[in-house]
Amino acid sequence: MRPFRRVSDSRIFSPLQRVGASGIVAVALAGGLWLPTAHAAPVPTPVGPPVNKMQTQSETTASAQARRTGAKVEVAGEGSETSKVMANPDGTFTMSTYTAPVRVKRGSAWVPIETSLKPTADGLLAPAASAEDVKFSNGGSSPLATVSTHGKTVSFSWPTPLPVPQVSGATAVYPSVLPGVDLQLTAQADDYSEVLVVHDATAAANPALKAIKITTATTGLTLSADHNGLSARDGSGAEVLHGSTPIMWDSTAAPNVGPPPSATSPGSGHVTALSVTQTPSTSELTIAPDPAALTGPGVIYPLYIDPQMSGRTQHWLVVSSSGPRESIFDDSTFPQQVGYCGDIVSHCNNIGTARSYFQIDTSPLQQRAGYTATIHSAYFYATEIHQYSRCTDEPVNLYEAGPIHSGIAFPGPTGAFISQASSHAGDTCGGAAPVQFAANQLAADAANGNWINITVALLAPNESDGAQWKTFAPTDAHLDVTYNFPPNTPTGLHVSHEVSCNGGLPTTSDTTPTLYSSATDNNDSPLPLGLQFQLWNKDATKQLAANPNLIGIANDTEGGWTVPKSLADDQYAFRATTINMPADGADWLTSNWSDWYSFIARTGPFDETPTAFSFDYPEGYWGSAQGTPGTFQLQANVPPGTANPPHFAGITYTFDGAGTEAIPSTGDCNLNKTFGNDGGWIATTSGNATLTVPSGLSPGYHTLNLRTFDDAHRLSPESPTYAFYVAPNVGVTKTKLEAELNTDVTPSQPAGQNIPMTTQQGGELYSNGWQLFFPGNADQQKFDLTFTTPLEADYALGAEMTKSTDYGRVTVTLDGKTPLAGTDKTPFDGHWQSLSRAYLPLNGAHLTKGTHTLTFTLNGTNSTTGNRYQVGIDYLTVAPLNNVIADNFTDAMNNHGIAAAGSPVNLDFNGAGLVSSTLSNAGLAPGQSTTIGGATFTMPAPNTNGNDNVVAVGQTIPFPANQQVKASAVGLLAVSTCGNTPATPGTITYQDTGHTHSNPQFPTVTDWIGSSADGAAFVLDQWSGGDHPAKPKVFAIFAPTDPGKTLESITLPNIGTSFRSTICDNALHVLAIGVRPVQAGWLGAWAAPIDHTIPAPADSDANRTMRIIAHPTVTGANARVRLSNTGVPTPSTLDHVTIARQAGTGAATSAAPAQLTFCAAAGKPAGCGLRSITIPAGGEVYSDPVALPSGTGDLAISYHSPNALNWLPVHAGSSTPTYSAAGDVSGNVDGAPFVSAMNTTAFVTGVDISTTDNSQGTIVVLGDQTSAAGSTGGTWVDKVPGKVGSALPGSIVNDSKVGLPPIARWKLDDGSGTTAKDSVGTNPGTVTGGVTWSSDHGGSAVFNGRDSRITTAGPVLDTTGSYSISAWVYAKSASNYMTAVGAGGQQSASAYLQYNKVFNAWTFISPSTDVLDPSDYPAVHASSPPTLNKWTHLLAVFDATSGTMKLYIDGALVGTTTNPTPWKATSKLSIGAVTPGQTAADDFFNGSISDVRVYQQALTSTDAGVLAHGDAPTGPVGGVGAPSARTAGATLNQTVTDEPNLRTVVVSLGANDILAGDSAATVEASLTKLIKATSADGLKQINRVDGTAVHVIVTTIAPLGLSPNDPREQQRQLLNSDIRQSAGSYGEDGFIDFDQAVRDGGNVNQVASQYLTSGSPNDSYYNALVQALLDAMNAFPPQADL
């Protein structure tokens, strides 16, 4: 109870208090925590051992924080209103319990007690924060006080209405409730006090004070009163609230007896007991003070009447030998008194001799698990508040005592003496202070007696000596005990990573295992524990090791000790004991030893890596169908006779990739377990097992990885990854056909061969235990295996073959015609040193339903002994991969390769594909058509399976009705994935009697991503599924057909695609099929094939007209014009095209131009009048026939472009002019609007003239710049009709190309001045710094390496497109970076052609971004330092279509790399330095530079050679970008085969090959590839209209003006000699000797002087070439039959 703040005359009644409050007991225990349990009984009752408690998580957390911070931390959840548990930094815990509450819970937090009174919502008063729910009246008739606890209440009411109280802090004073009497209520921590203050004797004489009435009311409680006080009990009889016997005291002051009396303590006042009676019928309490004590003589006012009440579980008692203080029990306001009160004056208020008793909780000392606590120290403390002798030390004795209660009187239950302490303290000597008593015996008695509590007594040593009189505080006494219990015997012994399955001994894989045990302490606040381990041999006869230091653990936790040395593979035993360790250094206590624990250590090597094999799933190939699971044989491969075979327990396997095997934990004993489709375990003690593949495994690619594990669950190294493919289930469940079973496969051999085919038994070597054996004995022997396919589909074929010493090489063909898996070129080699098996993937093929045959043909042998030609076959794989049929192209589509960007696609079987929007932009959306090389391709819509292209695997597809025509070729619009598809034959079947067929070769198609754009029909902007910077390319390839027969079906080439993902499975994807119809009645009259595509110049903006002059070589009734968009990535629209005869030599026409229409090209009926045409990207169109304009002059073909053009497909170096005009002047006659002329053409690539003579045909000249060039009289081809006349069997067209002009060229031969002239463009260079001029190398600029450079006004190259930079350099030093040519950006340059100091070599660099410090520098460089003081040719090439950078030095390729992030140069192009837009020029060149050229195309290796080797001083110049014998075959569809009714091809090539440095043999090989029918590109494959092969005539190479000592000249002469003597060895039908016609007889390396004007060929030169043609035609026998 809190003390009163005001003095009153009497204290009548105090409130009931909660039962459960107790005095302080502080127990300090090392390493543990004891939580008190309230016990109602006040007697020392032995109790059984409580359950051991382990340290809680809250204790662990608090302890860790205390150690970390060095400060005490409260343990969450283990405190109460009267107690708290603190974790100490040293690992111990301190529990403090107080007499009264010191805090209260508000929400989740503790707040301090705050007893100040506050108004409540119901108009009463209540303390702000107290442990008791108590409310006071705020005046009026409401109850004076109400106490509530757990829904039960007791209320007390004053008999009359109360005045409004005066509230101060925790006190409410109700004034004058009786005359001269105030009623005071004070809130305390867990109760309240009620005091009547009687101010004087007059007030005390009031009759109302003789019997004070208090009305009570209860809810859920029953109130009773007797001589022991008040008691409130619940329905079970348990006491909830309690009050001791009331007392009253006056204000007598006796300093030697005690402190002055007050409202909170009697002190030295006279004390009188009060009686309390209860009237049950009226619920009324009557308190009757002793009249003498109230108003008698000697009463010193104020007078206090106090019915002290409390609820305690630990108690205290004061007994005295005389007077009213005979027994005071549990009164917190009454001091504990000890000794004889010798105050003679006041007679000590008749106290006499007093003794004090305290009951202390000792439950934490009760026995644990049979162990008695060991006491290390114990002290009892009592707070002395007064003594008679003031500051003189006086003794007091501590005794054990018996139980106490309210009925005990003097002398009390005193027992054995414990100890004595002397002290002086209290109000007369400096204030209260604790007195310490040694109490070891006391604590030991409690522990030995197993008592729940113990009572002690304080007595004066001499109870007759008043000097020893003392008083003590009743609530501050406490007992501190340091103690512990011996720990329990360790339990839970085990070993690290132990596996204990199937009743065997535990087994561990640790070479230095950790031994574990658990331990518990018997202390209620458990002490830290230490574990001692001993390791012994398996018989426990020899100790092997023990831990030198204890392993410290907390109570009820586990500790381990790691054996310090590696254990051999053997059995062992260990045991453990536990020791507890008090923090204060007290004696350690030890448990008994545990039982022995035996285990096995598996420490020997375990490296038996398993392997997998399957007959059902050949490695890396297609196997059983989904839902028809096959098996794998798993084997650990333990060598026979192994001394200590592994103790296998199982195999773990995974289908999710290497390293994902499920690892059995030490507790896993069920080792036959599957984890869905992911993997599983198979139990095996032998290391061998059979694995059945989950039926739910999806079709397609999977991997299998394995590890064995032993009985310690040690894992072996992982097996190599076994890749396999689950075939789709399309209703065919049997995909493995046993070769030895006639029910699966029928063997046969050619008649007369008579080799006895047998079956051979081979046990586990073969899938069914047997194989089919062919004992061949000679090369080219063969046999067939016939099988039946249940449905039409694309199949994966394969064979499990046997290999041995006498086995030969084998070629495999399908159905007698299709070689499989390249075995025709590289036969399967069956030779091996020992009998073994090998799987032969035969790859994909489209098979119809029915019987098919595999033919195995012996093709040599590697063996040198035995029969050498034996063959063994175990089984065939015949696995359908879909249920695709080939009734038409749409049905045959078997691949999904086109989708929107970001959508799933699988063109390459690995998630990459074409983007539908880019195809649509190119005019290749479903339903759109494009014409290429005379064949029209229509893009199909996806079929019902979502497929959009046909992977060519030998499908036979009927032509649709509109393609069942006579044609000269069949075309495939295709892409090749995963590399270049090889030239492969297909089959064309015709509708004639017998359905004859031809087997033309389909040419190679280069990779859709990694190749250059040479020969590509379309270059698209984007692709899905990859980050390579290259652009995807679509090709049109053609195979010749018999033009005299009607097409029926096409059998696509079988590339051997097996539809496998994750590998690089080369495939030819056919997007559409087109045919080139026979063009009866037409002859080619003029041609201008596209050389290249250029960015549109400024004058090609919208609304312009171009007029092209064409020189036809034949005349007829009608004409048609071919328009081409070759190489342009987007469609181009021309809205007005006309044709007329040229008038004179300018742009005027002889008559009004005729309008051309395009009805047929647009799929509209004839005569529709459509004059506007949009040419698809990369495509071509023909105009409708129109009457050939009358007259004999050249033709003028005009077209109007209504829209701005980004790109132009051009033919350069035309011998006739092209005129340009603004607006649509296509119908203009006088030519006046056409103010500019050029020698390039665009879009118009051919003019055809009709003929009625079907015996005539088109003669095509396939040449280079030497044939494309001419004089004022035209080219030599232009002169042929006039010279040959009627001997010309039709027409002749010139499909030669002059090549690629640079977009800028600085020869640097200016000699003087500050400008470097651009000889071909409009980008002159400005000379800056110390540049000087030199005549060296035909003219050059000399740079000083400090500040000299030549710069253009702005950018010249678009460095995001393809480009090439050529320069001759002469370096004087290599000490710094030196840039020969730089395409500047703002901070850096997009392209550097330079000497790079880091690489110490010539380098081509393109930084990743235009910043000062780019993150990446894509670069290609030479492998050696530059040669100084020597002219060197450098060529840098970037191919935007493939993303590749190349560097050539002196014509030789020195390196290639990829540039993923090209960016556009935005600043000046510099020669001799680099000049960014926002930073200073840098990397100055030290030396000379000559002849700098830049191209907006990617040049070839031939071009590199031409540029590096240079032109001759006289004669024809080299053709950069012009055809060569090496390259011409790539564009035949844009030249030779694009001409109608092809009859003869004159091949006039080789000059550029020679100029590039090729040998004669190399050129001859190129010519052979170009011409021979055995080549897929061979001109001799092409047929004339009558079905015979076209004629091919070659020409010798005219002198190129090279020096006679130039190796190239020697190779030219050698090549010409070989051509003259070839006699058709290249496949040609004749030759024309241009060399002999124009060479100088005395200097055969030179052109005769009469044929040159200013060093260039003149008109006589070209006339001489025509004469050479005539001479060859007229020779006998003819050298050239056209």
UniProtKB/TrEMBL annotation:
Gene Ontology molecular function: carbohydrate binding
Keywords of this entry: Disulfide bond, Lectin, Signal
Record's keyword annotation contains Disulfide bond: yes
Entry keyword annotation includes rRNA-binding: no
InterPro entries recorded: CBM6, ConA-like_dom_sf, GDSL_Rv0518-like, LamG-like, SGNH_hydro_sf
Top-level taxon of the source organism: Bacteria
Protein's name according to its UniProt entry: Concanavalin A-like lectin/glucanase superfamily protein
Bias type Low complexity, positions: 1320-1332
